Amino acid sequence: MSLHLCDHSSFQLGVSMKKPKPLIVNARWDDQAKVWVATSSDIAGLATEADSMDALVKKLQVMIPELLDANGYPDGDDKVPFQINSELTAIAYRKAA
């Protein structure tokens, strides 16, 4: 009995196995305004804010497809993956010895 090894390309069967690359959204906490501010160089016109990360994700789930359509991006899969890279600066205090 012989074992035949093959790469993933032989399993395509007419269907692309490649996952779409997620769009990158950058979010930073604005401590003065107490909101997450999101922008993206991948999505023209994206600038929004929300008071929690969960609320931001919900807003982005609506805004991203709308902006892609408004900007004339080619039709693609109904699912549009996106990745949020967040930045939050905090302070930790040391106890006195």
Description:
By secondary structure, this protein is an alpha+beta fold. It has a domain at 21-87: TTHA1013-like (TTHA1013/TTHA0281-like, 2-Layer Sandwich). The protein is 19% helix and 24% strand. The chain has one helix and four strands, in the order βββαβ. It has a four-stranded mixed β-sheet with strand order 3-2-1-4, with helices on one face. Strand 2 (35-39) and strand 3 form a beta hairpin. The longest helix is centred in the middle third of the chain and has 18 residues, at 53-70. Residues 1-13 have low confidence and may be disordered.
Side-by-side strand order of the widest sheet: 3-2-1-4
Integer average pLDDT: 85
CATH-derived architecture of the domain at 21-87: 2-Layer Sandwich
Q: How much strand content do the residues show?
A: 15-25%
Please outline what is shown here.
Helices cover 19% and strands 24% of the residues. It has 97 residues and is of the alpha+beta class. It has a domain at 21-87: 2-Layer Sandwich (TTHA1013/TTHA0281-like).
List keywords for this structure.
single chain; 97 residues; alpha+beta; TTHA1013/TTHA0281-like; four-stranded mixed beta sheet; 1 helix; elongated
Write the layout of secondary structure elements.
Blueprint: E1 23-30, E2 35-39, E3 47-50, H1 53-70, E4 82-87
